[in-house]
Amino acid sequence: MKILKTNILALLCIGFFTSVNAQTNDVTTPLHLLKPEYPTPYGVPQKENVKAVLDRVYTFLNQNTASKVIDATTKQEIKDLKKVKENVIFEPGAFRLTSYEWGVTYAGMLLASEATGEKYFADYTNSRLKLLSDLAENYKPKNEKDTPIHSLLHPRALDDGGAVCAAFIKAKRNGFKGDIDPLINNLVTYISEKEFRLKDGTLARNRPQDNTLWLDDMFMGVPALAQMGSYTGDTKYFDDAVKQVNQFSERMFNKEKGIYMHGWVQSMSVHPQFHWARANGWAVMTMVELLEVLPKNHPGYAGVLAQLQAHINGLVKYQDGTGFWHQLIDKNDTYLETSATAIYTYSIARAINRGYIDKMAFAPAVLLGWNAVATKVNPKGQVEGTCVGTGMGFDPAFYYYRPVNLFAAHGYGPVLLAGSEVLLLLKNNEFEINDSSLQLKVKK
After folding, report:
1. φ/ψ bin of 179: left (φ > 0), alpha (ψ from -120 to 50), beta (otherwise)
2. pLDDT tens across 163-185, in order?
3. Contact at 8 Å (CB) between 408 and 338?
4. Which sign does the torsion angle of CA 221, 227, 231, 232 carry?
5. Where does 294-319 have alpha helices with state H?
6. How far apart (Å, rounded) are the C-alpha atoms in residues 341 and 317?
7. Which residues contact 412 (CB under 8 A, 6 or more apart)?
8. Nearest to 94, CA basis, from 55, 69, 64, 67
9. Measuring CA to CA, which residue among 375, 367, 322, 373 is closest to residue 349?
10. Which residue of 268, 294, 341, 412 has the fewest C-beta atoms within 10 A of its own C-beta?
11. Model pTM?
């Protein structure tokens, strides 16, 4: 019996040491080469996969946004707008052709056409803009409020025309043949002369409180002013655009964190800071878009560039390990949000492509961001995880629990922009996995 017990113990010991030796350990395997369990893809995106995402988004939007006008009663297409005086509406669709979100989408389609060489992306924008310009020129209803483009003809807020106006000018500069200048001039006149401003000229609103600055309005106003400066050569538009960036930043940029608060109310003795992600996206995108056309000899150029660099430095500090950014940037218990992540990805990639920031330092964050965004474009081409339209709040619950929705229009343009700019980044640079991490490949 004693011999039997001894033999059993010996066998157990042999089995134990054999098992230990069979396991992966520091002696048998280079542990630093073990594959991590990344929650989102990690590595260099393949150009064909980026384009496939752009194609899915295009297909979904082309099928789900109006491309013609119809009679509201008969539902028949109207081809000659000069012959009708009422009942003209857009055909049914999932998104509004005149919204600021769609201004971003029009710009995204134009950039996708540039990045991929595919004409159908630009055709999406040009066909819709032709529809809008034809309505403006030819449809004169008995009651002017009955036109489907009333917000473009009679804007009452920056949301009604700023982003769309910037896209109109980009389209014109990219060869759009329709007569859209009357709409451009109307919208720029509203931004420059009619929108409410503080006494120092800063674009402002009287909601939710009097004399309120919305960070969003940097984007709703500045890119249109910048594009108009480039389009006309009139420096007054550049001057106003630079002033807006400076005066918003003086009041709303947290230099320690490197990010912006969402809202600022003049009458508050203190200014609660809620660093909402998408509003920060509009801000960083504004500066990239302004520098794109602002003459380098303009006295405000260096300041805008420095502000952009400071903001990007701040943003990358808060990128989540998944590649996304949070709904409130500096609150890791808020949800991961798609539209802001896409806007940051686009803006930082474009800043790299234009030489505004160090590509070796920032390109890996861009590619990680794109890999995250791509996981949110479902097989139908719908963008998931986008926060719906959001006003301004001064308590955390407001931002923490904003809903997300597949039809939140804010996600689609940014995804098109991000994928397109990442494609341009990949075409002009090489990346590699070097000692397990994503790195710019430096030619020696």
Report:
1. beta
2. 999 999 999 999 999 899 999 99
3. no
4. positive
5. 301-317
6. 13
7. 57, 61, 95, 101, 104, 105, 108, 383
8. 64
9. 367
10. 268
11. 0.94
